[in-house]
Amino acid sequence: MYIYNSATRKKELFTPNTEGRVSMYTCGPTVYHYAHIGNLRTYIMEDVLEKYLRFAGYDVKRVMNITDVGHLTSDGDTGDDKMVKGAKREHKTVMEIAKFYTDAFFSDCEKLNIKTPDVVEPATHCIEEFIKVITSLIEKGYAYEAGGNIYFDTSKLEKYYIFNDFSEEDLAVGVRDGVEADDNKRNKADFVLWFTKSKFEDQELKWDSPWGIGYPGWHIECSCISMKHLGEHLDLHCGGIDNQFPHHTNEIAQSEAYLGHPWCRYWFHVHHLNTDSGKMSKSSGEFLTVSLLQEKGYDPLVYRFFCLQSHYRKNLMFSWENLDNAADAYKKLIERVVKVLDGKGGKADDTKYSELIKGFTDALDGDMNTAQAVTSLYDILKSDADSATKYKLIDDADSVLSLGLIKAAEKLAAEKESSGNEELPAEVAELLEQRKAARREKNFALADELRGKITALGYIVEETRQGTVVRKA
Ligand code: AMP
Ligand code: ZN
Questions:
Q1: pLDDT digit string (tens) for 230-239?
Q2: What residues does ligand 1 touch, defined as CB less than 6 Å away?
Q3: Which of 24, 42, 225 to mutate for ligand 1's pocket (most ligand atoms within 8 Å of CB)?
């Protein structure tokens, strides 16, 4: 598989440190609010990557942290603690907030067919590891104490700007959002490993340490949790593009200073989901969640399909119109899969299988081109292969794409059978679509009017737990 490595800024042949095995680390959510569908774009694409590596025969161990302490509103270690802010907003304790939003995150992941990583570790479970690594960094001369906090000294490194597009100007990230710069820092790019004095009064969770009672900085958690579960040599590290700097840059700095050797080989970054008002972000408070998509009548897997239709290294523009287009395309794809369901359990033609699966693997081998992988599904369905072969191809490809194709097709087939209607007349189908749109917009008066028109054409509309079903009166 060729994959774009952000550290070298090249597409490289993926070769893990140990043949046949992959250690994979993912930056997890900061659990002070619901994950928005932008965050989930990143997790969907990482999920495809993990599943494809498994499909390609690798034994993958994937680890993810849960950020439940230390992430401040400015990535430059100033501002409020996000968790404390969340707890205040909801009049709850930090741990209640953490539990609630961690559960909400995994529930969203389940709806989107995102597999839970092999290891999920909250930062608050690893305080001992953080203290061990910070102590060693101080001993090695890479960290210093100032104003009660412990800082990483970036001037001690030969090379700091690993994702090299960053300039001095970018370092001003530390003082953005109108919050005050931290005068304790010896160099602008230095970052906090352990807080004691700063923000102390606000902090609900704090632990004893050799430097006083306090709490860890955000960056140290990912280095430590990764090393704890995946050892000193990491194959693959993933995250959203905004994590490149300063978070991943700082992870590399402290991990390599601690280990004394290179740490992670491949860096995989997913670009952002944007709306016409810019990047979707939790802190802006205006964002879309999976539950909201469901309330508007969308199957969460339509959102997964929407994400897979574009490349992970391009920004993706969200609009309702784009999502509606994805919903239509997804529905049509499912209808085509219905036609190969009779191939279930049949004997696939090996030659045809190898010929057709190549379109799928070539797409993902080429820097995870999921849009092309989706196109390969259509190629499979319109090929001259028999149903058994097509069924197996779709089933196997979907073990990676996880669009729930077979399940959705079986459901649709069952609905068609029970309604006794193979195809609805075009006029009824069109009215039905309009009615769905009206319901999504919560325009129930219009929805009722459209139901009346459908009834007048001799059809009955029923709301079932599986969605709207239409059958001949
Ligand atoms: P957070 O919960 O804020 O720590 O973010 C969780 C993950 O979502 C990180 O990998 C971020 O880089 C990523 N992320 C944040 N905003 C977006 C966005 N608008 N589009 C895609 N990924 C994002
Ligand atoms: Zn991280």
A1: 999 999 999 9
A2: 27, 29-30, 38-39, 41-42, 67, 239-240, 242-243, 270, 272-273, 279-282
A3: 42
The model's pLDDT over 16-35, given as tens digits with 9 standing for 90+, comes to 999 999 999 999 999 999 99
Ligand 1 atom closest to the CA of 240, numbered from 1: 12
Token digits of residue 355: 């010929």
pTM to 2 decimal places: 0.88
Taking alpha carbons only, the member of 193, 173, 178, 201 closest to residue 84 is 201
Assign 160 a pLDDT band (cuts: 50, 70, 90): confident
What integer pLDDT is reported at residue 179 of this predicted model?
A: 46
The domain segmentation of the chain, as residue ranges, is: 2-270, 275-419, 426-472
- CATH number belonging to domain 2-270: 3.40.50.620
| CATH number belonging to domain 275-419 | 1.20.120
Lowest mean pLDDT among 137-141, 168-172, 373-377: 168-172
